[in-house]
Amino acid sequence: MGARETALNALIACRRSGAWSNGVLKEYIRRDRLDGRDAALATRLCYGVLQNRNKLDFYLAQLLTGRLKDLHPAVRDILHLGLYQIYELDKIPDSAAVSQSVTLAKAYCKNPRAPALVNGVLRRAADTKGTLREPVSYADRYSHPEELISLLKANLPKGKLEPMLIADNQTPSTVIQVNTLRVTPAALAERLAREGVAAEPHGWMPGCLVLQNTGNLETLPAFREGLFYVQDPASRLSVLCAQLPSTGARVLDCCAAPGGKSFAAAIAMEGRGEIVSCDIHPHKAELIRRGGERLGLSGIEARVQDASVPVPEWAGAMDAVIADVPCSGLGIIRKKPDIRYKDLKQTEQLPELQLSILRNQAGYVKPGGVLMYSTCTVLRRENEDVVARFLEENREFAPEPLALPEVFPKNETGMLTLIPGEYDTDGFFICRLRRNV
Fold first, then answer.
1. Is the pLDDT of residue 1 over 70?
2. Is 43 domain-assigned?
3. Which uninterrupted H or E stretch holds 174?
4. Do 14 and 62 belong together in one domain?
5. What are the tens digits of pLDDT across the range 88-125?
6. Residue 33: CATH number of its domain
7. Within a domain: residue 151?
8. Under a CB-based contact definition with an 8 Å cutoff, are residues 80 and 53 in contact?
């Protein structure tokens, strides 16, 4: 089984059962025993189709003699894969894209005419490359549903919408956080070079490296020895803004999986202090425990706990609470491209859950302690509006300016929204609140 068939199976699973592409793709790559090269191709094909689905349909409508809506779903998936290779990838010969797509049609389509249809459409696509009409609307050009575009437009500053849509369809950089308790960034970069991975210092986040030629990072000796973990700079920045003391503190990370913020907090505190790292799902709490063990971060206690349910013994006991709450995820479309196609109505009740979690977590903060609220979305109703409602009810808390790297403007509000397309990060919201009494 090759990369194209693995990608097709992942696309079918996403379409039929609503599976998340990143999870199902990893599972299928492992199941099909793809090597590093084929795994990378399967990933690029699956994500590329999801990132460009509307655009590919725009082209298909010009190439078909019949109606787009009459295509069998599996035929449409196969045509998407073929078109993406022909129009978006320059290292795959058109002939290979056509022949492999026909092979898939023979294997996955019951209609005996499907292979001929796939062959004809894709040959026409190759012959007319560069001559078809190009999409004009944002919905077709960047493959985001109109409803989502309208929502983003209402929430983003002027001039930020199109750069975000572009960024959503780009391959994000692989950024790792160096475990500086075990190795320096420079020494790790040299070590990774010996292991075949190019690494450069991150442009503005200390202790981070940007990687190229990564393959499967988990197979690297440097990874197994706990010298680094993968984390987006935006997520790391939210912990940096907490300004945790290196003398040690008691920190609660209430929605912690897969554990990146807990790991960043432990490293920021130089291995001192105590971090209670929670998730509602036992298997995710186990992921945190194993990750901390691999990194040698003994001060992390992984615990199964619902962030909205009070824990009496934690009342007023934490120097800092990190609340990176469940959200619509619209800031991480570049990493989970199928988020754009999810039903937005299912996200409308999230602010109530987010406020409930924030209220509960606030009770754990000591007087003088810090409460960090964050999401990976750019919607005000999940960000500033939740904070505003919380502050109306909790006068003992107040926003505090964020200490940010020099690349950012000076912050006085205690809140920051990172928008994809600005600083090469995920979309993210960060708010720092201080408990005064």
1. no
2. yes
3. strand 174-178
4. yes
5. 998 899 999 999 999 999 999 999 999 999 999 999 99
6. 1.10.940.10
7. no
8. yes
Whether 426 is covered by a domain: the verdict is yes
Task: Tell me the CB-side half-sphere exposure of residue 343, using CA atoms within 13 A.
Answer: 4
Task: Give the residue from 226, 220, 213, 232 showing the smallest Cα distance to 426.
Answer: 232
Q: Which residue in this structure is represented by tokens 């795994």?
A: 39
31 shares its domain with 104: yes
The answer to whether position 149 is within a domain reads: no
Task: Check residue 199 and report its DSSP letter.
Answer: E
| Residue 80 backbone phi and psi in degrees, to 5 | -60, -45
pLDDT for the residue 216: 80
431 has catalytic annotation = no
CA distance to 74, 77, 97, 105, 118, per residue, from 110 (Å): 10, 14, 21, 9, 13
pLDDT of residue 66: 87
What is the distance between the alpha carbons of residues 12 and 21, in angstroms, rounded to a whole number? 10
- 246: exposed, middle or buried (Cβ count in 10 Å: 0-12, 13-18, 19+): exposed
Predicted pLDDT at 36: 83
The DSSP bridge partners found for residue 304 are: 279
pLDDT digits (tens, 9 = 90+) for 289-322: 999 999 999 999 999 999 999 999 999 999 999 9
> Is the pLDDT confidence value at 282 over 70?
yes
Contacts of residue 221, Cβ cutoff 8 Å, sequence gap at least 6: 195
Residue among 109, 241, 327, 376 flagged as catalytic = 376
CA distance 172 to 51: 13
Same domain for 125 and 182, yes or no, is no
User: pLDDT of 120-176, one tens digit each?
Assistant: 999 999 999 989 999 999 999 999 999 999 999 999 999 999 999 999 999 899 999
CA distance linking residue 297 with residue 295, whole number of Å: 6
Find the domain containing 7 and state its range. Answer: 3-130
**Contact indicator for 182, 94 with CB cutoff of 8 Å:** no
Contact 234, 377 (CB under 8 A): no
